[in-house]
Specification:
Layout lengths: L1 H11 L2 E3 L11 E3 L1 H19 L4 E2 L5 E3 H7 L1 H4 L1 E6 L6 E3 H7 L9 H10 L13 E6 L3 E2 L3 E3 L4 H6 L1 H7 L6 E10 L14 E11 L15 E4 L6 E3 L1 H6 L6 H17 L6 E5 L11 E9 L2 E12 L1 H10 L5 E3 L2 E3 L2 E8 H12 E4 L2 E4 L10 E5 L4 H14 L6 E3 L5 H10 L4 E5 L1 H6 L1 E6 L5 E5 H4 L2 H7 L4
Parallel strand pairs: 3-10, 12-14, 22-23, 22-24
Antiparallel strand pairs: 1-2, 4-9, 5-6, 5-7, 8-9, 10-11, 11-19, 12-13, 14-15, 15-16, 16-19, 17-18, 20-21, 24-25, 25-26
Helix pairs in contact: 2-12, 3-11
The protein binds one RNA strand through helix 1, strand 5, strand 6 and helix 14.
Length: 474
RNA sequence: GCGAUUGUGGUGUAGCCUGGUAUCACAGUGGCUUCCCAAGCCACUAACCCGGGUCCAAAUCCCGGCAAUCGCACCA
């Protein structure tokens, strides 16, 4: 299934490896014409859903000065001292070499590590030779000068907290979102969109009063697999999971539930989704608790959303580093807000959506994605390449575009072939002008999912209500 | 990053062992047919990952690079 998607994606213009005429570049992918539309629709679904909860948004730079990541802990935690055995070429984290050699010292920087290696005979855990080659491996991309490409969009929001909070007139809870690029110099990028070096993130930072970790009330929604780090796996609603004490706060549970809801709207069904809590040693340095939403592709689970309790970790660090106050007051109580962060990996969501939505009918691909996220909503065809049919079809195409831009026109090949083309890219409806159209001004509207058609009057087609009822089901 | 395997038009492939004109299908373009679920016919477009070596001659053999797949490691 995964291979089928990668093939389809390249052939039909969803996504493909970047820079291929120069031999390619591991960890980088381009979105093609249909991928751009699909990605934008996914992001829009995310954005509009959070706007319902009063979210505000930010767009901050990719290139970020070093002090930001010094404060956030990324400089320390996203870079590792590494060691290579020059004899057997094995590579290790420096700390694991120290542990193997029963050394308790923890070097603060590269200089100290090099000193340890020259003062002490450190044996290679694999071949036993002396290890001398110590270097810094940084997961963050450094650009010239003391600047880095951000490994997450979140810090842009934290460093803007005061301005954003002022904009929000000092009110908590405050929800801030940012859709943008993140960069990580992955050691081994794999599986196309799963592990990229430059990736699309939609991050949400929810700022809350730590004494009142509540948000809107929980509601009943579909059951889903819930896998806390105690080892059990339950099939219950998120609301039930909270009521059983599996999720630490009401607000955290709300955003888990919201994530389930957003993913459903994007087209990832709850039956192919689970929430898994991180083990304590698996968490990011900034998180006191984390749950991943994982999507199923080919019987394998992949993280597509990470929801972390970042507490006041980031604001606190930026307050100490910058000297700017990040506190607020409720009555006499002064505090730094707590943060819950649902972070959506858009590339992985897009891949999961496509993999989970691809079906075959009579040996032909049908991409059954929700209508509103489909790259095109409608395709318009003349039954045949005849002037009178073409003229009518072009009229419909031009006039429907006044209501909905996500429309494509096609007259090449047989009618069956054109239906198949659209099925494969998920277009919900095909509108065909035939001979009857010339007589009574009706066209056929053919559904992607059932292949059945209905006759509709052209004037009905050109009404906004038609799009609302057919695509948005309003 | 290590190891194994692989790299041929837009896609999927044959050819590679045994060096000599690169196969087929799909897709695409133009035309014929005049058409409701990938019909047919004709014509066309279009590829040996990159670099080096061996050889009269390299898609084919050898070396290096890049990339992909899988396993290990990594994934904060």
């Amino acid at each position: 299934m995964y291979d089928d998607i990668v093939e389809l994606a390249k052939r039909r213009g969803f996504f493909w490896p970047s820079f291929s005429i120069y031999g390619g570049f591991a960890g980088f992918y381009d979105y093609g014409p249909l991928g751009v539309l699909l990605k934008d629709n996914i992001i829009r679904t995310w954005k509009e859903s959070y706007m319902e909860d009063g979210a505000i948004f930010l767009d901050s730079p990719n290139i970020t000065p070093e002090p930001v990541f010094r404060a956030s802990g990324h400089l320390a935690r996203f870079s590792d001292l590494a060691a290579e055995c020059e004899k057997c070429k094995s590579k290790f984290k420096f700390e694991s070499v120290l542990a193997f050699n029963k050394q308790d010292i923890i070097p603060a920087n590269l200089e100290e590590a090099k000193k340890i290696a020259s003062d002490t005979y450190l044996k290679c855990p694999v071949c036993g030779s002396r290890i001398t080659n110590i270097y810094d491996f940084n997961l963050m991309y450094k650009v010239s000068g003391d600047y880095y490409l951000r490994p997450e969009t979140a810090q842009g929001i934290f460093v803007n907290f005061k301005l954003l909070f002022n904009y929000n007139r000092g009110k908590l809870p405050m929800i801030v979102g940012q859709a943008g690029k993140g960069f990580r110099n992955e050691i081994s990028p794999r599986q196309s969109l799963i592990r990229l070096r430059e990736f699309n993130q939609c991050e949400i930072e929810v700022f809350l009063d730590p004494e009142n970790l509540e948000f809107k009330s929980l509601y009943d929604y579909k059951k889903i697999k819930i896998k806390p780090n105690t080892g059990e796996e339950l099939d219950i609603t998120v609301k039930e999971a909270f009521e059983r004490g599996l999720i630490s706060s009401q607000a955290f549970a709300y955003f888990v539930l919201k994530t389930q809801n957003i993913l459903e709207n994007i087209g990832i069904e709850s039956s192919k989704l689970r929430f898994r809590q991180h083990d304590p040693d698996e968490r990011a340095h900034y998180a006191s608790d984390s749950w991943d939403a994982e999507g199923l592709i080919d019987n394998e689970w992949f993280e597509i959303v990470g929801i972390a309790n970042r507490t006041d970790f980031d604001l606190n660090n930026h307050q100490s580093s910058s000297g700017e106050t990040m506190t607020t007051k409720i009555e006499e109580r002064e505090f730094i807000p707590y943060v819950i962060e649902p972070s959506y990996g858009i590339d992985r969501i897009l891949l999961t959506l496509m993999a989970q939505s691809l079906e075959t009918r009579d040996g032909k691909n049908v991409l059954k994605i929700p209508y509103p996220v489909a790259p095109y909503h409608f395709a318009v065809f003349p039954l045949m390449k005849k002037e009178n049919l073409k003229e009518k079809a072009e009229y419909i195409y031009e006039n429907m575009k006044k209501q909905d831009k996500y429309i494509v026109y096609d007259e090449a090949g047989t009618i069956g072939k054109r239906y198949a083309r659209q099925d494969e890219i998920g277009t919900p409806y095909c509108i065909t002008v035939d001979y009857q159209t010339l007589e009574d001004n009706t066209v056929t509207v053919r559904s992607r999912d059932t292949a059945e058609q209905k006759r509709i009057k052209i004037e009905e087609l050109l009404d906004l209500d038609f799009i609302n009822s057919y695509i948005y089901k309003k």
